[in-house]
Specification:
This protein is an alpha+beta fold and 257 residues long. The protein contains 8 helices and 8 strands.
Amino acid sequence: SLPDGALIVGDADAVAQIKVGAIYSTPLVQSFIRKDRVIVRDLTELKRTTGLGPEDIVDLTISASGITQAATSVKELDDSEFEDAFENAWMRGFRSKDADLNSGEFKGQTDLMMCGVLRLRKNLNATPLISEIEKHRKRANAWRAKSAEERGKPPPEEIPDPKKTHDGTTYYYVQENSNPPAGFSFYFPDPKTVVIGPERMIIAHIDSKGSAQPRQGLETLNPRQMLTVAYVPPDPTKLQSFIADAVSKIGDNAPPQ
């Protein structure tokens, strides 16, 4: 966790915390929002759906692990290499809890794990949000079935019901990919907190009963700042070596002056 107790993913090498409510309430941001009808409309819909607005959010904390490992795993400084490395790492990191890593569907050796924590000033009514997710699931299943029928294909496997339980606690798993099975999960440890991340991480947090040890290396962060960003690579020497190698390759391939 961060010094202020905000949950982060284990072994996080990148962390950001935004004081959403405080930033939203500044005159500059309010002036900008009033001029944009689309933003006003979206915020009105957010309030209608959840009963909350940006002013009700204490902070949003986003953390990730595996970024450095995924980046330094590429052999060539090529956009497609980086894209493949991070896509494979995301699939592994956000795989369902029952996914088989030996199935041949997963590639690479890196798990990219990301965690989002929303802390609120007042209780969240999650019922409308869950209802919207269920409506989206039914529409997606109907569209997939119709598309398969039009192409003369057998009906695809339905997107599963997102509602699950672990040790008596309800959480939700939203499958975004079926081959391999991967998606994000979320749950509400208390009425004022939303935790989003890989299913395995959510289950681990449920098992810990909400307790988390402070992350070493982040003790000096000031949680009172409106915006806090930190990058703490697990092995700085490996990153330095990767950067030095990348710079040398750029030098070898640089065009003549």
